[in-house]
Specification:
six-stranded mixed beta sheet; 14 strands; Rossmann fold; elongated; 10 helices; single chain; about 30% strand; alpha/beta; Alpha-Beta Plaits; about 35% helix
């Protein structure tokens, strides 16, 4: 288990993270989402031991990560802009990784190389952005990590490569029970692969939950009437989002669905229908409710 306790981090007196409490169970795939500049990359760097928290602790199975080579050897962090030594090819980068990761699995490396169809002898700096991402994934998974941290994991990958990447992560989880944290702006991608998701905003984690549990808390409802209704009809139940189109309302709301239905039925609608909601809608309207993205 990865545990973050009361994490705070600032740069040049600017607070980036404050009061982060987060538990990531072993063998889970956790999605990390949040607006631009929320601190997602900083949080992943703290979890990998690249950065030291100003306050609090990051532990893996009870052991501190920062300044602990034995624990850091179990963690692989793939940043948004993967690093490669100048003028090296994949074969040379493999040798470099082997110096720091004694668990490097040559058989897995060769298998992944064939999967992604990358040249082992071409200079990595000549690769496209997507190819560099593939190269970083090959090297990362070949170290047999217990914890895999991915920053904007699917950026630059075409649809076929994204699907292959998801399958590889799922296979790793099934075969070795690794723990994966994926930061991404693409909520649709995360919804496909993650079993849990966390929202980072206002310098802290405001939501952390299993995806299926979130789906039971948030609801998208369509309500219809035979005549015009006042715009403040649903003010008392405080929906996260409300659209009115003539006699029909579309509502996003959080809470117990039976209580919500009872309150809506009191307004005597002729149509009351629950529509499947996506994680993207959940987070968009949660962020809007917190004031993010609204005009000043």
């Amino acid at each position: 288990m990865i545990t973050l306790t009361q994490i705070r981090k600032s740069f040049d007196q600017k607070k980036v993270l404050e009061g982060i409490d987060w538990e990531i169970p072993k063998g889970s795939i956790y999605g990390l989402v949040g607006p631009n500049g929320a601190g997602k990359s900083t949080l992943l760097r703290l979890m990998s031991g690249v950065l030291r928290p100003d306050h609090g602790a990051v532990t893996v199975d009870g052991q501190l990560v920062y300044d602990n080579p034995a624990v850091k050897a179990k963690i692989m962090f793939v940043p948004d802009d993967p690093f490669f030594l100048t003028q090296t090819n994949l074969k040379e980068m493999k040798a470099f990784y082997k110096l720091f990761y004694p668990t490097f699995n040559e058989e897995r490396y060769q298998r992944l190389l064939k999967h992604f169809r990358l040249s082992e002898t071409d200079k990595v700096n000549d690769f496209s952005k997507g190819m560099k991402r593939q190269a970083s994934v090959i090297l990362a998974l070949s170290t047999d990590p217990e914890v895999l941290l991915l920053d904007e994991a699917f950026d630059g990958l075409d649809p076929v490569m994204r699907l292959m990447f998801k399958r590889l992560i799922t296979d790793e989880l099934i075969n070795r029970e690794i723990t994966v944290v994926i930061s991404s702006h693409n909520l649709r991608e995360l919804e496909d692969i993650c079993d849990r998701i966390a929202l980072l905003d206002h310098r802290t984690i405001s939501i952390q939950s299993e995806i299926e549990e979130l789906r039971t808390q948030y609801h998208k409802i369509q309500i219809g009437y035979t005549k015009e209704q006042p715009a403040d009809l649903f003010d008392a139940i405080k929906p996260l989002h409300l659209e009115q189109r003539g006699h029909v309302f579309l509502m996003i709301i959080k809470g117990d669905i039976e209580s919500i239905r009872k309150n809506i039925q009191a307004t005597k609608p002729v149509l009351l229908e629950e529509i499947p909601i996506t994680m993207e809608e959940v987070f968009v309207y949660e962020m809007e409710a917190k004031g993010y993205g609204q005009a000043v």
